[in-house]
Amino acid sequence: MARTNPPDGGGSGSRKTSDDETTHVRQRVLAPPKVGLLKDFKSVVQETFFHDAPLREFKGQTKSKQVLLGIQAVFPIIGWARDYNLRKLRGDVIAGLTIASLCIPQDIGYAKLANLDPKYGLYSSFVPPLVYAGMGSSRDIAIGPVAVVSLLLGTLCQAVIDPNDNPADYLRLAFTATFFAGIFEAGLGFLRLGFLIDFLSHAAVVGFMGGAAITIALQQLKGFLGIKTFTKKTDIVSVMQSVFAAARHGWNWQTIVIGASFLTFLLVAKFIGKRNKKLFWVPAIAPLISVIISTFFVFITRADKQGVQIVRHIDQGINPISAHKIFFSGKYFTEGIRIGAIAGMVALTEAVAIARTFAAMKDYQIDGNKEMIALGTMNVVGSLTSCYIATGSFSRSAVNYMAGVHTAVSNIVMAIVVALTLEFITPLFKYTPNAILAAIIISAVLGLIDIDAAVLIWKIDKLDFMACMGAFFGVVFISVEIGLLISVAISFAKILLQVTRPRTAILGKLPNTNVYRNTLQYPDAAKIPGILIIRVDSAIYFSNSNYVRERASRWLREEQEHAKAEGMPPIKFVIIEMSPVTDIDTSGIHSIEELHKSLEKQHIQLILANPGPVVTEKLFASKFAEEIGEENIFLSVGDAVAACSPKLAEQQA
Q: Alpha-carbon torsion 151, 105, 344, 204, what sign?
């Protein structure tokens, strides 16, 4: 690495005039004005929980206006309903009818993933969308059961209660989990703790969703192949063993023909919709067309007599009250809380991500905390009305968006269609083959496998890719909950690694500038002889303070050895560039003190450059600024180098 000669003591230019003298007067680093404890605490709380200033609209308003704004904050429908018109209604009705045609067959299949009767899937697309339409802030999201959450709920509940041996208690546990999922979601929003869902990183979600999609598709082989005896496990090894064990006598060729034919039809419809955006309605209506045609075919041929498994009876009528079925005590009470928290977290992450995606596409804002309250409330109300966990569905939301939706009225239209279906049409689903439901679910979940996103994650961050693959293989080869646990664990491990092992860099001076940059990033950045400039790219806390001190000492040792080998002057000044250091605690101060004392013994001066206000305040409060000398704290690296150069020249002379 090239080294430049140290700049002269006066910096660039001579100091002949009084104006020049004024130009080179050094500006001292000042401690920020002292702030009272109460004011400081208020500032921290405000930035942590109220960074979006949610009460700004209330300032300067009359009492009556503030009351109206308060009601509107809880029920956003009051705000946008005033500007509603026939043009918007037309778009919302078309979108609502389109997503209803998609959700009805999906809901029947998703209920089976949760080990529940098909009617509960339809129930969950009636009440929750109505609640969300009044309280949600997203205009585009479509509410209802989704594949991943259905599988997760079914897997977790099945581990506690066997749905075949004890269906009544299993159903009660599902309602209990839904109730506490809603409490968990609404609680996070009410306490403004929505940032907690960010701990489930994008990479982990991509891996988890991909693994869940594979698992869901494998689970559908039971209905797709007409297998009657099937494993209750979800890992790929157990599922494939179960599939091949039934290959000799357990597969039904009529079922396979029905499933394969309509799966091909659904995939072709999806391909047409992707190729031509104007034909978005083709893949949206294809599942319902498949159900109608296959049901009619089975009815007229009585294929159910030939071993083709069918849905059979679905109760007519809208949601019955289920408040009395929720466990509020007993051995299943705590299990309901645990399952609800896990499933609620995944449902919340998916819904908020979908809402933010479409809000960005249409250039409007959503309030994440209000979304959580809305999602939580709809699940609490849903649990009291025979629904299981509902959330935002990406496939339905995409169809909703492409159908020209304007407001959440599309969810109301969808809910009305589902209610009419429950009241009048459910008997017609009696002969619907399970194979068509399997085909619908397989075609729906294939879109959850995002290979492009995984490749991009690999290119950007290898640790993120590990989290992605950990979640994927954990779900596929072990279980859904283990995959989720692995993804969260790797995400936390990454955070801990970044906190405990922050990046550090040696800085050099770019040619013909007074700018200092990382010598690895800019090979032409020259080091200053006799001066070592180190940048710490993180806050310095108890978790990394010893590492920062040891890494700085190692940099110094390596540079001293290099200088000796090259016949260069030994290091006499160590400058720590602190602009990226956003905060420092007592352990960090103590570590810097130890570094200072260690350098003093080697007759090397420690210099600090550009500490921020928080760090500067703590340096002065701890008296370390006095110990190191205020004259050794500079506004910039350039100032520090300029001040060190004359001293370095004197020592070398």
A: positive
